[in-house]
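Standup notes, structure subgroup. Blocker cleared on the zinc ion input:
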Amino acid sequence: MNTVSVKEFRDRFKTQEDCYRFLIEQKWGSGFKCRKCDGTKWYKGKQWFYRRCSSCYYDESATANTLFHKCKLNLLTAFEIAFRVSVKKKGMSTTELAREFGCQQKTAWLLKAKFQNAMKSSGKYPLEDAVEVDEFLVGGFDENQPGRSNERKQLVVLGIEKVIDKDGHETVGRAYAKVIKNGSAENLKPFFEEKVSKDCSVKTDGWRGYLPLKKDWEIQQEVSNKGKNFKELHTHIMNIKSWLRGIHHKCKGHRLQNYLDEFHFRFNRRGFMGSILDKLLIRAVQLEPITYKQIIKSELNT
Ligand SMILES: [Zn+2]
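Run returned:
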C-alpha cells in the first residue's frame, strides 16, 4: 500500500532541526521576502532558524506565520501529530493524541483544530463527470450522556463522483460534504457553486430544493427508493456516520464541518497516502494561521 510508516516518518524527521529545515525550505526555498518591507536580502537572525531582514532588521522565525506559531508542543511532536492525523486511516481523537504524546487535551485539541483547518478543501477542484448529490442528517452525539441525543441534528449535503474501478465496478471517486441550514435551493446552491462542476451531469433524488438549480446544472432527478438507486452514495454516508460515531464519543465538543473536511481530505487522497503528510505540512506553512479565538468563533457559527 502506498503509505508512510511510523518508521519512515521517524527516519525522515529525527530531530527538531529536521523539522525546522523542512519549514525553512517551504518558507524561503524559492527566495526570502521580508513580511514587513518586502526586502529580499537577509542575514542570520537570533537563532539559526531565524532570518533577519537586511533593510528593516525584522527577525522572523521559520515557524512565524505558520500553523506552528506559538504551538505549545515541541516542533517534532507537532510534526508527528500532523503525521498521525493525516496518515492514520481513521484519524486520531484529541484524547488519544493527548495520551500518546503526554500533553494536555486542550493543547492536542487546538493543534488538531488547526490541522483540520488546513485540511479544508481549496475549492479549486470541483467534482466532475458523473456526480450524485444527497443530503443526510448527523447528530445526537453527546459524550457526557452516551446514548442520549440532546444535541440538535445537523443537515449535511454530500456530493460524490461516480467512477469505474479497474475491475469494472462502479465506485466513488472524490467526494465533498458541507453542513447546511436546510435543504432549500438557497442553501444547496453554494455547495454546487463550489464543489460541482457546471459541465458534469448530476443525479439527485426527487427533492424539490434541487429544481431551481437546473438552470445552471444538468440535474436528473430519480426516486431514491430508500437509497437503493444511490448505492455507492449511501455506502459513503454510512462510512462518514460510522467514523463520526467512533471519533465523537472520544472528542469533547465538535464542529461537524471540520470533521467532514478532515474525513474528505484523507478520503480524496487515499490513493496518494505517500504524499499526504507533505500536503498537510505545506498547507500549514502556506495558509494564514488560525488562532484559538477564530476557532472558537467558527464553532459558535456552526
Ligand atoms: Zn524588512
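Discussed briefly. The longest helix spans residues 231-248.
Next: hand off to the docking folks.
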